[in-house]
Amino acid sequence: MKLNKIFLIIIVLFLYGCENKKTAPEINVELYGKWTSNDNLCNLELVRNGASIRLGKFNGLNHATLENIDLNFKKNGIYFLFSAADTKLKFNIVYVEGELTIDHYCSEPLHKVSN
Fold first, then answer.
1. What pLDDT, in 10s, does the model give residues 57-113?
2. Which helix (H) or strand (E) holds 14?
3. 0.90 cut: is pTM over it?
4. Among 32, 59, 31, 55, which Cα is nearest to 43's?
5. Selection from 58, 66, 67 nearest residue 100 by Cα
6. Do 96 and 31 form a contact (C-beta atoms < 8 A)?
7. Which residues contact residue 67 at a Cβ distance below 8 angstroms, ignoring those fewer than 6 apart?
């Protein structure tokens, strides 16, 4: 009887631990690669950075150029929101339904060009 109680306690602790484990959202592998706008004024490359994502290179309106920027990301329903890890840099990307939108830097959404 005592062995059954110990076994039951171990199972309960195991299940409790698994249930409360926080998991980071996974980045859709289709996001990595090169992106461009229809007018070719905005070009972006997203690269894998361990379990996260990084802006490899970006060229935007008014000759804005950014390179090697670590990005924070959050999945919110059907879209991903990416922001620069450096809070001084106001750079945000929204990914929804196969397009990237970059406020203040691009006038058109970007679509995938290659991996």
1. 999 888 789 999 999 988 888 888 999 999 888 899 999 988 999 988 898 999 999
2. helix 2-19
3. no
4. 59
5. 58
6. no
7. 55, 56, 57, 58
Per-residue tokens: 76:
């919110």
- Which amino acid makes up residue 43? N
- Tokens at 24, concatenated: 């980071």
Tokens found for residue 87? 């809070």
Retrieve residue 29's tokens. Answer: 């592998």
Sign (positive or negative) of CA dihedral 29, 69, 73, 39: negative
Q: 80 is written with which tokens?
A: 């991903």
Q: Which DSSP state fits 108?
A: S
DSSP codes, 25-91 = PPPPGGGSEEEEETTSS-EEEEEEETTEEEEEEEE-GGG-EEEEEEEEEEEETTEEEEEESSTTS--
Contacts of 1 (CB under 8 A, 6+ apart): none
